[in-house]
Design brief:
Distance between the termini: 39 Å
Order of helices and strands: HEEEEHEHHEHEEHH
Largest sheet: 8 strands, mixed
CATH class: Alpha Beta
Strand content: 15-25%
Structural class: alpha+beta
Number of strands: 8
Helix content: 40-55%
Radius of gyration: 17 Å
Oligomer: single chain
Number of domains: 1
Shape: globular
Length: 212
């Protein structure tokens, strides 16, 4: 099986997993993966739970639609990551409930939407800034992401949910899941939740090279 064929299968497998567990609903969300000659991205208005490998959109390095169904309207946002961070090979975006709710009820800080309340959040996710609301596919969102694509593993779009990038589709999904789970814990704990103190954070930096 070719690299492209394997990536198509991985996108479908991860999409179905996220959908089945409620990380996204209906036709919300999108997934992409880098290729040597461009990238793959889920089609516009496609349901992540019922993706067809053959229908996944392919675009060239310039972002031009090559084959498959029409690409997601967030194509420009995904391209902003790939063009500015060559180490990243996948982007996952969902409308996860607790993270969207966080943007409505109020994040911890605009530069850090959640406090470092668990070690795995610090290790696997790190700093996640809030991107103020703009319509889906708005070019100004991509412009903001382009400036920070090497500094963070993802962003939280106000009223639209998380966008996470990593070295593979699976790793991006895992980081997104950790982010959503931390938002759920934050909701459950409320004002009583406190972040790890600096000595604990430094230990995670020294031991696991955590980016916090």
């Amino acid at each position: 099986m070719s690299v492209e064929a394997k990536l198509r299968e991985e996108i479908c497998r991860i999409g179905a997993s996220l959908y089945q567990r409620g990380y996204t609903v209906g036709s919300a969300g999108n997934i992409s993966a880098r290729l040597d000659d461009g990238w793959l991205i889920t089609p516009t208005d496609a349901c992540l739970g019922f993706l067809d490998p053959a229908a996944i959109s392919k675009v060239d390095a310039g972002g031009n639609w090559v084959s498959g169904d029409k690409p997601s309207k967030t194509l420009v946002l995904h391209r902003a990551v790939y063009d500015n961070n060559p180490e990243m090979h996948a982007v996952v975006h969902t409308h996860s409930t607790h993270l969207v709710s966080l943007t409505i009820n109020g994040v911890w800080k605009e530069e850090d939407v959640l406090p470092p309340i668990t070690p795995y959040y610090v290790m696997k996710v790190g700093h996640i800034p809030l991107i103020k609301y703009a319509r889906p596919g708005a070019p100004e969102v991509a412009e903001q992401v382009a400036k920070i694509a090497t500094k963070v593993r993802g962003v939280l779009l106000e009223r639209l949910g998380p966008v996470v990038w990593e070295s593979s589709v699976s790793k991006a999904a895992f980081a997104l899941e950790e982010l959503e789970e931390t938002a759920k814990l934050w909701h459950l704990a409320g004002a009583r939740a406190t972040g790890l103190e600096e000595p604990a954070l430094q230990d995670l930096r020294d031991t696991f090279k955590a980016r916090w």
